[in-house]
Design a protein that fits this description.
This protein is α/β, with parallel strands linked by helices and about 180 residues long. The chain folds into two domains: about 5-130, Aromatic amino acid hydroxylase (Phenylalanine Hydroxylase, Orthogonal Bundle); about 135-180, no CATH class. It has eight helices and six strands, in the order αααββααβαβαββα. The chain has a four-stranded mixed beta sheet. Helix 2 (about 20-35) runs antiparallel to helix 3. Pfam families: Biopterin_H.
């Protein structure tokens, strides 16, 4: 590993993925899940982050592909992870969160998902198990985290969603008219 700041790791590994909206949302949701969580839950989320955002693998058209920044910025570890000799297990957050994160050598195990969307789904389900007395939502308009702790805060989100669904409904009507469906 190179000393911090490792600009190659950041620019080659993280920046391209964070520019992709689905991945950026995944990373943000992992961070949100940790807010207000116990130290134990934060550690489990951090380990899942490590084995996805840093060292994640997924399948694409049946082939194994790396998406983790730690793999994308280290040709040696990338070759090792895809060599066939590395231990690869299915990504299951309840299992992954118990794996030791190695920072001075190659990982003992890598975790693979059938797709990146599957990894995101599994992490969302895992994040729901984090115990805390409130829910959180990121507001992209104010660039802030909203605490959903009472009915008025939930009602505000529902109203925003209704507006978004109105926009989608309008778009579907226009497409339908345009396509003659």
């Amino acid at each position: 590993y190179t000393p911090e700041p490792d600009t190659c790791h950041e620019l080659l590994g993280h920046v391209p993925l964070l520019a992709e909206p689905s991945f950026s949302q995944f990373s943000q949701e992992l961070g949100l899940a940790s807010l207000g969580a116990s130290d134990d839950a934060v550690q489990k989320l951090a380990t899942c982050y490590f084995f996805t955002v840093e060292f994640g693998l997924c399948k694409q058209e049946g082939s194994l592909r790396a998406y983790g920044a730690g793999l994308l910025s280290s040709i040696s570890e990338l070759k090792h992870s895809l060599s066939g000799s590395a231990k690869i297990l299915p990504f299951e957050p309840n299992v992954t969160c118990k794996q030791e994160c190695l920072i001075t050598t190659f990982q003992d195990v890598y975790f693979v998902s059938e797709s990146f969307e599957e990894a995101k789904f599994r992490m969302r389900e895992f994040a729901k198990t984090v115990q805390r007395p409130f829910s959180l939502r990121y507001n992209p308009y104010t660039q802030s985290v909203c605490v959903l702790k009472d009915m008025p805060s939930v009602t505000d989100v529902v109203e925003e969603l209704r507006h978004e669904l109105d926009i989608v409904g309008d778009a579907l009507c226009r497409l339908s008219a345009h396509l003659g469906v």
